[in-house]
Design brief:
- This is DUF3606 domain-containing protein.
- The protein has 87 residues and is mainly alpha-helical.
- The protein is built from 6 helices and no strands.
- Helix 4 (50-60) crosses helix 5 and helix 5 crosses helix 6.
- It starts with a helix and ends with a helix.
């Protein structure tokens, strides 16, 4: 067991961070929101209408609770919420 521990402590077996990043890249999720036309970005989400909340939660690919949180933080503007979720 002690010999195994010593093998893992060798400096030449420590992976190179750059090689690790190359082999295991972190994917950018900036493009996960589906694009939609600019006319819809100018509208407001009706937070009192369950159908509207469901529609926009599906559009943003988030839960209804996450949409409520985004509205609480950013207001009901589709553009502002989209910017918040993308950033």
């Amino acid at each position: 067991m002690l010999q195994e521990e010593n093998e893992y402590n060798k400096k030449d077996e420590v992976p190179d961070p750059e090689e690790f990043r190359y082999l295991h890249p972190i994917e950018d999720d900036g493009d996960t929101l589906e694009p939609f036309d600019d006319e819809t970005e100018n509208r407001q989400i009706n937070a009192e209408d369950p159908a509207d909340m469901l529609h926009w939660a599906q559009q943003f690919q988030i839960s209804g609770e996450e949409l409520k949180m985004a509205i609480t933080i950013n207001g009901t503007s589709v553009r502002d919420i989209k910017r918040f979720l993308s950033g």
